[in-house]
Amino acid sequence: MNRNISILSKTEGVSIERLHIVTWDIKSKNYYTEYGLEINRGSVSAARLELRLSLPCLPSDSKDVISLDKNLSDIENCRFIFNSDVIRITPFGSGGVSGNTVTFAGDREITILSPLGMEISEDILKIEMSNLETIGELVYVRFLVKSSQPPFQTKKNELSRRRINYDVRVNESRTASAGVKRLQKDLFSFMSVKSCFCLHIIPVEYSLGVIDSTKLKEMRELESESFEKYLGEIARKEEVVLKPSSYNIIFYKQKDRENYSFFSVFYEETLTNTQLGIAIAVNIISTSLFAFYELRTKVNPELKWDQTPLEYWIALFVIAYALGWFFWNVVKSKDLRFKRR
Asked: Residue 276 to residues 4, 12, 50, 280: CA-CA distances in angstroms?
């Protein structure tokens, strides 16, 4: 599967100041990825801007691409997402429907726009923005993509654990999709990206495997309450529940490159208590069967049930308890796996 993110435009002189990529590995029936583009218009005076994005596991229905501009109209949500002091948020356009201008400490401003349209055609996401002639240089667009498959993740089972690979690439020419090549023939070109931020939200059960320390900026526990508040109605509609202390967030950053790559390996232990219980139960059963055979054939060939030693009855009770505990955990595990995906 192609893991490459390609961002193209026909407008010259326009670049991406910051690109945000956030993958979610959370308990839900779907997979989600956030994309945020801080676009520097520079001296370009065009009233409209059209972008073309080739994204892994892009859904066929445009309804599965959700703009997050309304979520970022709240000052606390902006503080949480941008990790900066927000002075004020000013609605932009008639009734604020076109977006909001966010002013940070130090008078830095970005305009978070509601895209004029987001459509999917031939595995390409088309984004159109308008009213650009009356706003500042920095335009921000953030949206959520819902998919049935993980766009950047592959899993492989090993003997006692599961290996999880994350492979995120941005504007990589050698892995460009057929759709990107068609766009290039239509005079679209890759947009330069000054800084790229890649974040993975992962369960706390994942342990670190391979990490590129030159790009790693931070590892911390996810602020579940703030994140769920930021999602707002989306969390309720998609049945996303974030339990406290259940997820960590891994934060990578790289800048001033023609293209970007972030590769990580995590591990999840699969040798669970259930499997250990199976091994113990099998051992007890095997030992008991051998002992019963010795008792029945050599020690007391005329053995009757009421002559069975007390120790054997204790062993049988342990076996029955272990089997009951095992089947209960199997049912519980299947129920949790269904809720997670």
From this structure: 40, 61, 56, 6
